[in-house]
Hints:
Number of helices of chain B: 4
Largest interface: A-B, 16 and 26 residues
Strand content of chain B: 25-35%
Low-confidence stretches of chain A: none
Strand content of chain A: 25-35%
CATH superfamily of chain A: Beta-grasp domain
Structural class of chain B: alpha+beta
Radius of gyration of chain A: 13 Å
Number of domains of chain A: 1
Number of helices of chain A: 3
Structural class of chain A: alpha+beta
Number of strands of chain A: 5
CATH superfamily of chain B: Molybdopterin biosynthesis MoaE subunit
Low-confidence stretches of chain B: none
Largest sheet of chain A: 5 strands, mixed
CATH topology of chain A: Ubiquitin-like (UB roll)
Distance between the termini of chain A: 58 Å
Order of helices and strands of chain A: EHEHHEEE
Helix content of chain B: 25-40%
Radius of gyration of chain B: 15 Å
Number of domains of chain B: 1
Oligomer: heterodimer
Shape of chain B: globular
Strand order of the largest sheet of chain A: 2-1-5-3-4
Strand order of the largest sheet of chain B: 1-4-6-2
CATH class of chain B: Alpha Beta
Amino acid sequence: xxxxxxxxxxxxxxxxxxxxxxxxxxxxxxxxxxxxxxxxxxxxxxxxxxxxxxxxxxxxxxxxxxxxxxxxxxxxxxxxxxxxxxxxx
Amino acid sequence: xxxxxxxxxxxxxxxxxxxxxxxxxxxxxxxxxxxxxxxxxxxxxxxxxxxxxxxxxxxxxxxxxxxxxxxxxxxxxxxxxxxxxxxxxxxxxxxxxxxxxxxxxxxxxxxxxxxxxxxxxxxxxxxxxxxxxxxxxxxxxxxxxxxxxxxx
Lengths: 89, 152
């Protein structure tokens, strides 16, 4: 019998050009233990017009106001934030 | 040493910020300030009516503080002041004030230069130009990233 992965739903917030393209907030269903890299791929596949920005190394991901790397494993209680390239000054 | 780092949602008055910095800097021999102003044209020459600086509820203010504190640690300055607008900014209005004071001029010049290079690429804002021909998101140029890299 194959093992079935348990899933979770996470809240994802977007800013700047990503908020314009995808909306400010999405609820996303993921396999438990998915990484940020997998979430980026998944969002890029679902929203191909924003794929470049979602995959850009200059687009940062935060959980609880802290930057997390692409190999961060997402927990069910996480709210993820995608920050497209920053532009101040 | 003092650090002022402030997100300003309404109006930025550079002359008041400079006056406050000069006031704080009594005893110093140098005060250097930079004011960034919204341009009336995009890099493609299209008219820009307003700049919209979207910000993050917590990370924008924190990024200003972090950049200000790191400038204070890195250079021999007495005071650092960074004030950054968010929201809608009309063409010709100030976006950012970055200033520093020091005993001698070089540290204050360097600190102001450093503040702006960091703010361009690391302050948590997203910049959009709105004009009659539409809206476009503005991101740092490769030259901006290279300028930031000078300090590594």
